[in-house]
């Protein structure tokens, strides 16, 4: 009986300890995985681009993802970037309608 009581107390102690460790301290923050350090402004061929992501922090940028999985950061306000986004959206919509 004492053994079971000791096991139950140990498990509850470890669970509380684990929750405390997972929450971390007040100073810890997770870094973004897709953070842009530099921006590329020259035009990239639409044939190379497979997808895109929009990042708003720390600055608003578009991350273009090539067919090989390479992520390229570009400014969101360039005309060719907006055309690329529109073309990629049209591709996605076309594929959705073909599947339906």
Automatic annotation (TrEMBL):
GO biological process: immune response
Boundaries of every Chemokine interleukin-8-like domain copy: 32-88
Pfam families, alphabetized: IL8
Xref: InterPro entries: Chemokine_IL8-like_dom, Chemokine_XCL1/XCL2, Interleukin_8-like_sf
Electron transport found in the keyword field: no
SMART domains per UniProt: SCY
One of the record's GO cellular component terms: extracellular space
SUPFAM superfamilies documented for this protein: Interleukin 8-like chemokines (SSF54117)
UniProt key word Transcription regulation: no
GO molecular function: chemokine activity
Domain of life: Eukaryota
Keywords, comma-separated and alphabetical: Cytokine
Family: Belongs to the intercrine gamma family.
Name of the protein described by the UniProt record: Lymphotactin
Gene name tied to this protein: LOC103064841
